[in-house]
Amino acid sequence: MGSFKAGLLAAATCLLAACGQQDKPLLVTIKRPPEGEVVHMTALLSQARLSVIDGCVRVVPDSETRVGYLGVFPYGFAIEAADEGFVVLDDRGRRWGATTSPRNIGGGELEAIPVNEVTDMGRCEGPYWIVAP
């Protein structure tokens, strides 16, 4: 029984320490919208970068040196560690963007966002860019 407890303790320690894996940044997403509701945003950031800053996925316009915007992604988007940085996946699991390459990012800017409309934002702060793929 002692080896079982030791194994369980080792597994729990590994989970808590993430077994040496890179910490996954917080990807804020819109909560599941009500059935039939559609939202449109019409702005475009040309050649913007996805950056992980202080554990938050941010959208940084190419011409800016500041921290840009906290990206608020559509419902169902996710983030995964990659060989270099992180990859953002769309709601079908397809690669949408990565922290290693700039891309055009549609959407719109908001100075404030109702916290009940998004997943947990943790310590991530605005301004916000509502990402429209």
UniProtKB/TrEMBL annotation:
Signal is among the record's keywords: yes
Keyword Signal: yes
UniProt superkingdom: Bacteria
Organism this protein belongs to: Lysobacter spongiicola DSM 21749
Lineage: Bacteria, Pseudomonadati, Pseudomonadota, Gammaproteobacteria, Lysobacterales
Name of the protein this chain belongs to: Lipoprotein
Signal peptide positions on this chain: 1-17
The entry's keywords: Signal
